[in-house]
Design brief:
Mean pLDDT: 86
Radius of gyration: 25 Å
Low-confidence stretches: none
Strand content: 5-15%
Strand order of the largest sheet: 1-5-2-4-3
Largest sheet: 5 strands, mixed
Number of strands: 5
Amino acid sequence: MMFPRMLDKMRPGELEKVVWRADMPQLILALMRKRVVDRLSWNFSFRGRLIPVASPRIEDIEAVDDVSTVLIFDSLRTRADDCQARCEAITTELEKWASYFGLYFSSRFDPHSSPDVTHKAPYWYTPLVPHMQPRLQFPYLEFKTTTWRRRKVAVYSLTDLLGPEMASMLTKGPKSKYADQRCVVMKRARHNASVELLLMQLQAYIAKPGP
């Protein structure tokens, strides 16, 4: 997973001493959040960079021109999201028992073991063990969107992306010009493309299957 240029600079035997940090997922998340906050701070520190709207609903953003991204300050989580962890635990338990029966009771699933079958199973044959459908076990990731003039645009919850504390510092901090707002629109512009890319990367990193 290391860059070839880094591997070339390592001495013989040093690669075996490389240790993968146990907190690497949290470290990556913290670094991504910091980059997003650094770039968004510029937008929040000037009036006119963002357009306040009542909500990401169609009727509230239809009159705004060049809508590219909608930033909502509150969380978009619902009660269904709170049940998602329980659903994932049940799915893991089901797969564990399916794998267990497939390992120790595979002959029960083998139709060739029936007394009515006179031929043996081919060497490549493996008994089919029932598993949950892939799209139920690994459903599509959920990305919030809204519709603006018949086109989908991304909706990002700053509280869900950055965490409540970091989102509050960004939106209600001393440099913020939008502390009294709850939702803003980021317009389509060249100087907004880089921060929108960072938002998309962060959303993809923390995205989970929908409830």
